[in-house]
Each structure stands twice: as C-alpha cells, then as structure tokens.
Amino acid sequence: MDVNNPRAATVDLPTPSVGPPADTGHVGALSKLAPEPARYVLNWGRRYSLWVFNFGLACCAIEFIATSMARHDFIRLGVIPFAPGPRQADLMVVSGTVTDKMAPAVRRLYEQMPDPKYVISFGSCSNSGGPYWDSYCVTKGVDQIIPVDVYVPGCPPRPEALLQGILKVQDKIAAESLGDRYPGSPPEREPLRKRLSAKALLRPLIGPKDHDDVA
Amino acid sequence: MAEERVVGVGAGAAGFGGYDRGGGEPGGLATQDMVLNIGPQHPATHGVLRLRITLDGERIVGCEPIVGYMHRGVEKLFEVRDYRQIIVLANRHDWLSAFSSELGVVMAVERMLGMEVPERAVWARTLLAEMNRALNHLMFLGSYPIELGAITPIFYAFRERETLQQVMEEISGGRMHYMFNRVGGLKEDLPAGWLDRASAAVAAVRRRVPQIEDLIFGNEIFLARTRGVGTISPELISAYGVSGPIARASGVDFDLRRDEPYLAYPELAEEGVLRVTTGEDGDCHSRFGMLLEQVSVSLDLADACIARLRSLPQGPINQRLPKILKAPEGATYCWTENPLGINGYYLVSRGEKTPWRLKLRSASFNNIAVLPEVLRGCVVADMIAILGSMFFVVGDIDK
After folding, report:
1. Are B364 and B341 in contact (CB under 8 A)?
2. Taking Cα atoms as reference points, which of B143, B90, B49, B69 lies closest to residue A64?
3. Most CB contacts within 10 A, which of A130, A140, A143, B251?
4. Does B385 fall in a domain?
5. Does residue B378 belong to any structural domain of this protein?
6. CATH of the domain at B158
7. Using CB atoms, which residue from A2, A71, A99 is nearest to B72?
8. ipTM exceeding the 0.90 mark
9. Long-range contacts of A41-46 (CB under 8 A, 24+ apart)
10. Residue B29 CA to chain centroid, in angstroms?
11. What is the pTM of this model?
12. Which residues of B touch A105 (CB under 8 A)?
C-alpha cells in the first residue's frame, strides 16, 4: 500500500510492537524429546549452517559485504549469505540505521523468518541509534521492535567484529535447548515438564498460519 | 491493494505484437496496468530505495521513486552539533565517499573563517580524496555486474578496496568513516613511511584494475544488457541536475575539480594529470566505462599528489584552533565534486558555535530524480540494469 496515496485507507504494514513471540509450540519438539547427546549433535548441525539474511540499511552493509568477501570470508564459519529472502533464513543481520519509516518493514521481514531464528544487531545505529541518537526519525535501537541475540558495537564495526558476533551466536546456539527457547503458548507451558507425545514430531514445521501474511 | 486487478505480466502477456518484448499493445487484448513495488528491501536497490512501478505487461509505463526510508534527519542534527562534531555526520550520509563529504564541511567553515590551510594539508587532502574516489568507484564496479548476474568481479573489486582501505586505515584509523579532516587541515601528520605504502597500494591497484575490465567490460552478455539501455540525453541531465560520472557519460563536460577548482586541483589540471573524461552514448555501458576511466584518473592524481608530498618541506599540517570554534555571521556555499556527483553545503552562520542552517545538496538525490524519465518504456529486466547504473547511495538520497 502506498503511504503517499491519500485514497489508501490503511497502511498494510503492521505497527511494530515488542512482546513474547507468537505461539511457536511446533518448534523444538525434537529438542525437548531428545537426550542430551542427540541435542548436542542437532545444535552442532544448526550452528554451522546459518543461512543469513542481510538487512543492509546503511554504511554497515558495506562492512557486511566486506566480511563476506575473500579476506574475511565468513562462509568458512558456516554462514551462508545466499538466502533468497527472509523465508529461507536462520539469521538476520540488521546492519545500519533503522528509521521509523523502515521499522515496520524490519519487523515484518523478521516475522517472515521461520523459527528458530536469530538476530545480530550490527553497528551502533541498530544497537542504539548511534550518531543519530537525537534524530527525530531514527529508531533508537532495533531491539525496540525485534528481539536481538547479539549486539556488535562499532560505527561501522570492523569485519573482525562481525566474525566475533557470529561466533557468539554460534556459542549461544550450541548451549541452548530449543525447547527452552520456544516454550510454546502459555497454556502449553505447564505440562512441558511432562514427556511430550511422539506425535509432536509429526507436526509440520510450518503451520498454515505462517502463510497468511504473504503479500 | 483493495481492488483486484487484471494484470498482464507473464506468459500470456507477451507476443501481442507491437512491442518486441512484453505485451500490451493498444487495440490488442486488453490488459490493465499493474502496480509493482520494488523494495524497500530489495537486493537490486542495494539499500532501501523503494520504486513504485506501473506496468503494462512487461513494459514500465510509470515509475515513482519513494524516498525517505533512510531519512536520518542530518540537516536538523547539523544545527545542534558544533563544527568539529558535524564532520561525524557529514561523512555518514554518503558512506562510500566519506572523505569527500567531510571535506565540503571543513572547506565551508574555513572559507567563513578566512583560514589558510597549510600546503601539505592541501596536497594530503587531495591525495586522500582521490583514493576515496577510487574506493567508491571500485564498489560500484563490483556491485553492478552482480546485479546483471556476474558474481566474479566483486571479489576482484573488494581485493582492490581492501588494499586501498589498508593505507587509509593506517592514516586515519577508520576503514570507511575517516574523520581525518579538521577545520584548518588534517587531524595528524602522515606517519613515517606511509607515502611509500600508499604509493605501493596505488601501484598494486593500478596493475590489477584492468582485470575487472577484462572480466566484464567486453563481455557479450554484459554488452547485451547494457548497451543502448537507459540512455539519458544531455538535455535530461541538465533538466534534472544530474551530475558526476552519470552526467559525464552522457557527454556533459562538467567537473568541479576543473570548473571550480579547489584543493590542489588547479595545479594538477595545469600539469595535465587531471583529465575530465566524458562519454557519448549516455547508456548503462558508457556509465560503467566512465567509472573505469575515473579510477585510472584518480590513481594518476594520487600518484602526482604522493610525488608532490615527498618533495614538500616538513611543516604543519593543520591550524591551531581555539577551544570554541565559531564561524562569523554570514553564509557560504561550498560545493565539491564527490565521487557520485556534486555535493554542496550551504552554510548559514549567526556567529554561534553551531551552524544556524546547513543545507546539504547531495548528488544521489538529483541523480535518482531522473529515474522516472529513464525507466518509462523500458522492460522490467532493464530496470535492474538501469537502477544499478545510476550509482547511488541511499543515505545520499535520503540524507
């Protein structure tokens, strides 16, 4: 919807809001059921196959590209920058200034990513507004609209800093249990301590509700 | 979109005659216009430019660039930063030409103060500005082929960028945002032995840049995608205030380095090192070629500056500034030839330590304004080729 069009009644981008993730009970069922060694293997597989969606917004995007090039080469860490869009990505790198006009789109694309998903906030602007901390139109930190896993400081951060941030995300993935990260909807949370039924494994990874925001 | 539209894109739309590609001839099978949004987050826009394109079949009949997704309000922020702090914001609006952008601010303030800049600083500034220009153009020399489907050149381009960035980083501490200009000169003197390393980097880049040209410039697919596509006439260039390599590719012979000389450019022009290259065709191919030529001119200029800096006697590289720097009351307009075109600052001071108003005229904003004229009548696939060849930085459009 064109926001410049006076005839348009509503803007179709959702208003950004921070809150607990929506019902994601279908993620992490295997992780909940699996014994510790199996979970280790699963996490090991996930941490070294991070398809990344570069949300390139400003200067930091150039450093992101520099990191993906031959000298720094984050593909050797298992970060794959060829995700055609958010729907195929595991990791989103928000690199650059998030403005209030752009914020709904950031939120929208984040919601399009399938669970489990991780976010790196790359650079001062997306961490806190950076040099635009007192601007009237800059969002003071992308964590106001989406949850962030790792913050990389710098303006722009050096490529080495992004590599370090990626390692931090990988450490986080290695140490976590998906069942804890996605505890499901609140009513489901209580009986979690009981053993889940093996039927949980047969549920499709992507439910029909993930499709209704196709635009 | 509230109402449903019958659209004419896809297999059924082509081959109605009239147009060689795409459909929608009047009198044929009726098609209705479709509005297609490109962006704001789209790989081809390398940034967050949004285009609202009206399509008739595969033909573009209208295009409206919707800007503002990267609007950070710097002009307002300039008014609450003092003249030292402004440089921080000035080198961030066009993040690929940071040095040239900060240069405009300090030159405006120096002009207001009537300040003389030491000769060494003038030559060092010219050197760094030209290395920055090469860095900027190398980015586009790499990213443009990617948009046309050729991935390899960007690896070559980034190798050259890293080579140049290394010496820029050694001197200033920053890989992109140098913050090396100060009112009255540069932050610090050049480190010992730096000129040798800079000279070696320039030589290495000069030796390897032809590889990019060999890879892509004469490629048959590249020619088919770019030659005769997106032609901009000199009249259109003047009407929209397009500047920089895009304007020169259309044969508009205008370069502020020569036509309103600043820094050490008058002398370099006299020696014949500064060559202003112009194209003829004004199409995507000629715009890409312009960048290649400008890189080699920039490297020549850098070499001339290095040679001059070697021969200059030791001396100060900046001016001693008062604790509180205030520009006298008045106004000035300082424009420079940034890598992407004319970058101007209109500085109005009321004698305070912050500017009363600092208007920013950025190159990309005007360069992008011409898009609707260029895109009209093109097919969607050409849109990617044209958009990429406009060499814009979104922060420079939205400020």
Report:
1. yes
2. B143
3. A130
4. no
5. no
6. 1.10.645.10
7. A99
8. no
9. A43/A173, A43/A174, A43/A175, A43/A176, A44/A174, A46/A90, A46/A116, A46/A173
10. 44
11. 0.80
12. 40-41, 48, 69
